[in-house]
Each structure stands twice: as structure tokens, then as C-alpha cells.
Task: inverse folding
């Protein structure tokens, strides 16, 4: 179990902070990443909970299962439109930022590995969604539904390299980016519910 929060909002402390360790999950076991013939099999572990009190503040802990990666505590909120206090980034903000940050990591890694003359790399991205929640949309009384409507990513680069070299770099980085591939390709998912300690 995660430790119960004594605060009612995310505004009283850092939104993201380093912690000594990841709390132990109860639904699965944390295993160290393994090298296989296909590559490195790794996981990113996330534990999150609602902070007691009014509103929609959430506290979470995240850590990849790689020994050299640290654990972080972070807070998440929602805008006032759906009952939040806008004291921390919303879930979709973290999702979008995670994809863009991961893509940048691979772009930089490729440029460094190939010793390309690149002075700056920036990503501008739009993630598009559609939400149908009774009370938020004109259509009342329907079921809650959420849809992804696509991702537009713009890679802005300052470089002395020819266009074909940069195009190859971006293509290779996108293929290597696990976060980008998660939204580009269909991936297996599962959701299991544990109610009062029992799986249902």
C-alpha cells in the first residue's frame, strides 16, 4: 500500500521529486530488466492513488526496472472543468510529454552515435483526443467514452547535415522510441481489478 497523504493538494510541495526507493506493489513483483536475444526486456512501474480530500489530486511513484534509473514521486491533477484544482499537470499532459521526451532521447542518441553536426533539436507536438463525459459535452445521458484522434509531431532541427541524413535519423529514432511506438502501433493491454484484496 502507498503511504496515505496528509495533504489535500499538490500545491504544497514539489510536483516531481526524487525518492529513495519505489514502494513495493501488491499486485505484481518487480523484476530487474533482462537482456534477451531480441534486446532488453524492461518495464516501467507505476503506483498511483488519489490523495485523500476533495478534488482530483493524485500521487504516484514511477521507476523503470533498470538499476541505474531512480524512483520519483510525482503529483497529478485536473483542470477545474472536471473537478480539479489545476495544481499539477493532468494525466494527458504527462502522456504527451513522455512521448516527446522519449523521442528526443532517441534523436539525441542517434545524432551522438553517428557524430552528426546537429546544434539543436526541438519537438513540437499535438496529441488530439475526444472525450464524451456526461456533463462536459452537449450529449447528456450517454456512456463515458474517450478516443485518441491522432498525434502530430514536428521535429525542428538546426544542422549542417544534408536533408536525407536527417530524415534517416528521425525515421530510425521514431522506430526506436518505445513511447512513440506505444501510440503508433496496437499493443497488448490488460486491466485486472482487485476489490478488497480479491481479484474480480
Result:
Amino acid at each position: 500500500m502507498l503511504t496515505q497523504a496528509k495533504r489535500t493538494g499538490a500545491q504544497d510541495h514539489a510536483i516531481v521529486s526524487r525518492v529513495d526507493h519505489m514502494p513495493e506493489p501488491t499486485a505484481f513483483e518487480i523484476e530487474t530488466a533482462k537482456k534477451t536475444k531480441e534486446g532488453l526486456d524492461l518495464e516501467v512501474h507505476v503506483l498511483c492513488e488519489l490523495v485523500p480530500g476533495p478534488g482530483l489530486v493524485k500521487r504516484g511513484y514511477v521507476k523503470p526496472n533498470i538499476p541505474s534509473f531512480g524512483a520519483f514521486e510525482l503529483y497529478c491533477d485536473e483542470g477545474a472543468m472536471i473537478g480539479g484544482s489545476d495544481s499539477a499537470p493532468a494525466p494527458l499532459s504527462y502522456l504527451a510529454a513522455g512521448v516527446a521526451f522519449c523521442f528526443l532521447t532517441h534523436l539525441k542518441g542517434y545524432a551522438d552515435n553517428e557524430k552528426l553536426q546537429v546544434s539543436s533539436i526541438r519537438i513540437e507536438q499535438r496529441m488530439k483526443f475526444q472525450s464524451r463525459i456526461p456533463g462536459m459535452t452537449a450529449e447528456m445521458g450517454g456512456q463515458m467514452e474517450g478516443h485518441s484522434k491522432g498525434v502530430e509531431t514536428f521535429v525542428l532541427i538546426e544542422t549542417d547535415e544534408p536533408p536525407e541524413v536527417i530524415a534517416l535519423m528521425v525515421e530510425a529514432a521514431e522506430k526506436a522510441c518505445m513511447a512513440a511506438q506505444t501510440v503508433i502501433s496496437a499493443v497488448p493491454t490488460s486491466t485486472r481489478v482487485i476489490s478488497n484484496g480479491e481479484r474480480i
Notes: The chain is about 20% helix and 30% strand. The two ends are 19 Å apart (CA to CA).
